[in-house]
Amino acid sequence: MKPEFFQKTVQLNPEKSTGKLRVSKLCELIDSHPYRDEIYSSFKISEIQDEIICIDYIDLVYERVKYYNENYNRSFIYAQVKDIDVYDDEQIIEGEINTDIIFNFEEYVEIDEVKNNLRTIAIYDAKNTFLDSYEMTKYANNLFKIREGALARQNIQYFKEKAKTNSKVNKHKSYRLVEYNSQFYLRGITSINKYFEYGVDFTFVVSMLILHQNMKYKDGVEYTIRSAALNESKLDIIVSEKFLKDAGAFGSISTAVKISTNDLGQGSLSFSNILSVGRIEKGFFIYRRKSEVEKNKEIIPHTTKPENVFSTFNNMEGVLNTSDEFIQELNEIKSIKTPDELRVKILAKIKNPRSALKGITKLSDIFKRKIDNEISSFAKLIEMCENAEDLEIEYDLKDKLRYIISDIMLYGG
């Protein structure tokens, strides 16, 4: 993956944030969005455009979303298999071999105009999605890996030639592109009329408007953004309430919401109720198991039509305001009184040979020190989890760690 498409964490520096953003400025992010009018209508933007949204660090995340909007131009084209040439392109950059997979569209349709010869570089899972159609992903990827790209191209070329006379092979798809620094990249391959992409800008604007509404209707509710990571196609934000509640041995907790979108992933939009454990400025997060979050999560699939999306935003009570129920769950599991057993299980999961976290020494070091198996020692375990949350590691790895800790804390692993 090229560095310019990595999902990067936003540095939440209180000295650089006002924690305020006018609704009208927030909505500038969607000025060119295809569903702008629907957002304006659903949230009655004309009536609230001068209101100030007060959420800690909202302005910093806004600037990052704005950067991607201004520098990464997303679009899509339609093309048929018979008109696509796929091959690898090797270049030596600073003494190292760099291999790109090229999708050259010999003929394609942009809006309603037929065009020719567009060279794109495949990123994310675009290459594998294409190869999956022929059940040759593993085979072709191995050929690319051992620098036998010419043989992989011969196999792909066979299907391209077959597509010229066989309509079943000649699949017609939508190819999702992004232009960055005058170079086109292929982000993903989807169906033509059954796939709806809402985007990072849409998700950020809508989620901040939802939280703004909730603060207006719920006295005393205030929010702070605790974590934010994004690229041009993917956004993950954790927002927690500032008001803390007592959870016994777990200390102070607050309701939090994990907001995610992945333009080319399984869910277009998702809002999940989670818990922030510990202090507002330093703590960690507990997630429920995916099989148990139906009533505490709203997922909008890519197949959801725009006219059906906005009704979901009016029914977010189960996502935004459920900390009391979660506290009860914590009080039930802490009665186990075995904090060191939980520590050992967390460490074992991290050091498992199949774990993506196994090579992060500074992480395993946090959980190495033995603690007493007394209920009072939960504070030490919580401190370990807080220190793990503070580590600067890739976002995907950080999220895996959160799921490991949550699964062991809530369910014993």
UniProtKB/TrEMBL annotation:
It comes from the Bacteria. This is Uncharacterized protein. It comes from Chryseobacterium scophthalmum. The lineage of its organism: Bacteria, Pseudomonadati, Bacteroidota, Flavobacteriia, Flavobacteriales.
